[in-house]
Design a protein that fits this description.
The complex is a heterodimer of chains A (about 350) and B (about 130). Chain A has about 350 residues and is of the alpha/beta class. Chain A has helices at about 20-25, 30-35, 50-65, 90-95, 115-125, 200-220, 240-245, 250-255, 260-265, 270-280, 310-315, 320-325, 335-340; strands at about 5-10, 15, 40-45, 70-80, 105-110, 135-140, 155-165, 170-180, 185, 195, 230-235, 290, 295-305, 330. A nine-stranded mixed sheet of chain A has the order 5-4-6-7-1-8-13-12-11, with helices on both faces. A three-stranded mixed sheet of chain A has the order 3-2-14. Chain A is globular and about 55 Å long. The structure holds zinc ion.
Chain lengths: ~350, ~130
């Protein structure tokens, strides 16, 4: 038996509302909010980046796991906003946790599914008996080009999971991947902002891969949508995951804890992992959770987890997602937001 | 070039590792080779909790190079629950609303960088303790 033994998250305290961005670009905020099911998004402080969010989330994951960080044998950080082009974020995270030096680490990149890629590898390494504990983090401080549709959703946050073979809070039941070469979104080397295929990002990209991964794991496990207590799909906005969920026979009570985008935005590599963390904050023992990520490029990783008796015992050892999301918020105007995100710079 | 210095200080900056004298049990941050209290040379490594209260602080409005984007920001002396006082930047707050005695907790944050292509330096900083 392998699975999650601890989890933690970090959400910055700053927010910007859809109205504030729309005002600058002459867009209609009512249409945007309704069309995307999105109200506001998190914004990283000037001294936060993918590495700091990852470290702060990972510390809470280790706290909930109740382990000695020196026993973590593998650390994987998934992100599309690693602070360095060359020099791993994983080294910073491992050093800050006290996992060095007997630790294997790598940075992963696969648009919004880099976080679950790390979870996939971490779980399989523990299952193979190669390491005692493995840490996987999804962390991003993503940017959309000024005025682009992505500027309304691209946000910041991190979710971290310690995987192990005993003292589980959620047992891994099964995994399944679904991946094709689909050019729906990309960022070239040295480019500041990504480009995307507009409407092409819906049907042949997000919807096809999520649906493909869900059908594959349902087939493999013999489960059906109504067997799950909870489900989390990747959330590029608040509309896509709800549309696909409903079409596949899932219902609102199943995604109510995991759907965070309307007030968080899209935390990219942190998105579906953060939804899983928020669901673990609320789920009871012996409940089934379906997690399906999506990363442009494109692919989906599906996981089925079953919660254990230990989950309610450890969840209060660190702040819950809802508390990080709903309390101590500071709203920014577009000018301060542009400065924080280095969209405007002082001369050197 | 601050790379070697920053790297040498990473146990303190990344993990808040302090030295505890094996004889008189006083804690020093950063750690020392000889205890200034009792002269003992044996120390145990202890990780500081990062939790404490604001003892005193000042607000930096004209920041040195590398920190100008953060101004105004507060730098304070924090009395940790372990009983020792340490210096640190206080972030995630309006510096003019801080008061001595405020409960603070530490977070891992970006301190500064050596220009657009240089090394990024990380450290602990303090934030108001809101339980998140
Ligand atoms: Zn002494």
């Amino acid at each position: 038996m392998v699975g999650i033994i601890g989890y933690g998250t970090q959400i910055p305290r700053f927010r910007i509302k859809v109205e504030e961005i729309a005002k600058v670009w002459g867009a209609d905020p009512v249409a945007l909010k309704r069309g995307l099911n999105l109200n506001e998004k998190s914004v990283p402080a000037p001294d936060e980046d993918c590495a700091t969010l990852a470290v702060n989330a990972a510390r809470d994951a280790v706290k909930r796991a109740g382990i000695n960080p020196a026993e973590i044998g593998a650390v994987y950080v998934g992100s599309e906003s690693h602070p360095y082009a060359v020099k791993p974020t994983g080294t910073i995270v491992s050093e800050a946790l006290g996992a060095c030096p007997f630790v294997h680490t790598a940075d992963l990149e696969f648009a919004c599914k880099a976080g679950t890629e790390g979870m996939f590898i971490a779980l399989q390494l523990v299952k193979a008996g190669a390491v005692k504990y493995a840490l996987a983090v999804g962390a991003d401080t993503s940017q959309g080009a000024p005025g682009d549709a992505l500027e309304y959703s691209a946000s910041a946050g991190a979710a971290a999971f310690v995987m192990g073979a005993d003292n589980l809070v959620a047992e891994l039941v099964d995994t399944h991947a679904y991946m094709t070469d689909t050019p729906d979104f990309w960022r070239r080397e040295h480019a500041h902002y990504p480009e995307h295929g507009g409407r092409f990002t819906g049907e042949p990209a997000y919807k096809k891969h999520i649906t493909g991964a869900v059908n594959a794991i349902l087939d493999k496990t013999g489960l059906k949508p109504s067997d799950f207590n909870y489900m989390i799909f990747h959330q590029p906005n608040g509309k896509f995951p709800v549309q696909v969920a409903k079409k596949m026979g899932f219902t609102e009570p199943q995604y109510r804890y995991g759907l965070l985008t309307p007030t968080l935005g899209n935390t990219y590599s942190g998105s579906s992992p953060m939804g899983l963390a928020a669901t673990l904050d609320e789920a009871g023992p012996d409940e089934l959770i379906l997690l399906v990520s999506y990363g442009s490029g494109a692919g989906s990783d599906a996981f089925v987890f079953k919660t254990t008796e230990r989950l309610p015992e450890i969840r209060d050892l660190a702040p819950k997602v809802k508390k990080q999301l709903d309390t101590n918020k500071t709203y920014l105007e577009y000018g301060a937001y542009a400065k924080f995100r280095r969209k405007i710079l002082k001369p050197e | 070039m601050n790379v070697p210095k920053h790297w040498r200080e990473s146990p303190q900056r990344y993990r808040m590792e302090a030295g505890k004298c094996r004889k008189c049990e006083r804690i020093f941050f950063p750690g020392r080779l000889v205890c200034p209290e009792c002269g003992h040379t044996g120390f145990d490594m202890v990780k500081l909790s990062g939790k404490g209260k604001l003892h005193t602080f000042t607000v930096i409005r004209t920041a040195p190079s590398g920190f100008t984007d953060f101004a105004p920001y507060a730098v304070g002396i924090v009395e940790l629950d372990e009983g020792i006082r340490i210096l640190g930047q206080i972030t995630d707050c309006d510096p003019d609303s801080l008061q001595t005695g405020d409960r603070l907790t530490s977070k891992f944050r970006r301190m500064n960088d050596e220009g657009k292509t240089g090394m990024i330096m990380y450290s602990y900083k303090f934030v108001p303790d809101n339980g998140i």
